Amino acid sequence: MALLEIRNVTRRFGGFVAVDNISLGIEAGEIFTLLGPSGCGKTTILRMIAGFDLPDEGQILLDGEDLADTPPEKRPVRTVFQNYALFPHMTVAQNIAFPLRMSRCPDAEIRQRTRDTLQQVRLGDRAGRYPNELSGGQQQRVALGRALINRPRLLLLDEPLAALDAKLREEMQIELINLQREVGITFVFVTHAQNEALALSHRIAVLNSGRVMQVDDPPRLYGFPGNRFVAGFIGHINILDAQVLETAHGHTRLGIAGLGEIIVPPVAGAAPGGKGAFAIRPELVRIGVHGDVTELKNHFPCEVRNLLYCGDVTTYRVQLANGALIEALLPNSAPGRAELFKVGDAVNVGWRHDAGVFLHE
Fold this sequence. Notes:
Layout: E1 4-13, E2 16-26, E3 31-35, H1 42-50, E4 57-62, E5 65-66, E6 77-80, H2 92-102, H3 107-120, H4 136-148, E7 154-158, H5 166-183, E8 186-191, H6 194-200, E9 203-208, E10 211-216, H7 218-223, H8 228-233, E11 238-247, E12 252-256, E13 260-264, E14 275-280, E15 286-288, E16 298-309, E17 313-320, E18 325-331, E19 346-351, E20 357-360
Helix pairs in contact: 2-3, 2-4
């Protein structure tokens, strides 16, 4: 049985359905992320788990017990918000100890647990500082410490890294992973940042318009999106309209209008005549000249329309014979000049027969 079960939960605000009959199971000890665009329902789900809001339909169970009649302060759940909500007049130690003071724990226990938590979030040398004397990352660790000191069963994190700059966000992602591994508490993480979700999570639920689009671990979600929305929302991807021409034991043959045929891995549930889309990540597309890619089963002539130098890689956008544009990545791994092709160059693109996925309509 999952630690947290969300069963057929619906939440409406007037005529607007924010969460539409969602069911999820979250296992003990995992970082589970709710990912999706603004307004998809992820924060509403987090608020219902915390008890700040209640479902109109369905159940939320923790260790098999329905939380409906349990007020927020009685739930073994704590929330870290985007703005951290620290008390500016309290020191780091006082902020972290605040939940224990409110629950009237003995002073000796408060001191010991505060010391332990300060070490856990690596703020032992900042115990006497005030929030305005700390960096953004240190303030976030104070908020985490205050949430962890009561040893909750669940820690809810609502866009906790959104206020940090890019470099600090990356550092804090590593810190969160290490902290979660050390404390062993289940994290439920809300974000709209795909890279953040892929880096942090054991599993991800992609949401759109109040519904679950797909639940999977990051590699499968990235490599095998289940539908067009997930494919387009997670990272960069090329999507071409396609029709199934043939299904065989070892492959599926697709037709791309105005381009020709391509070979893809076997597709469950595909039948000749079925329509959908072929999706492939730019890093799986090879680009070259002359015979560079012609040994690949799927290869086509094209023209470079534009390029984007990104330091570690260069993204080439090329136009195929049918007018479709696709992206290909080349790593800038050689010293010196990184621009291998120019706008207007005639090139070839290709990809392996086992790269990419077919998405049903």
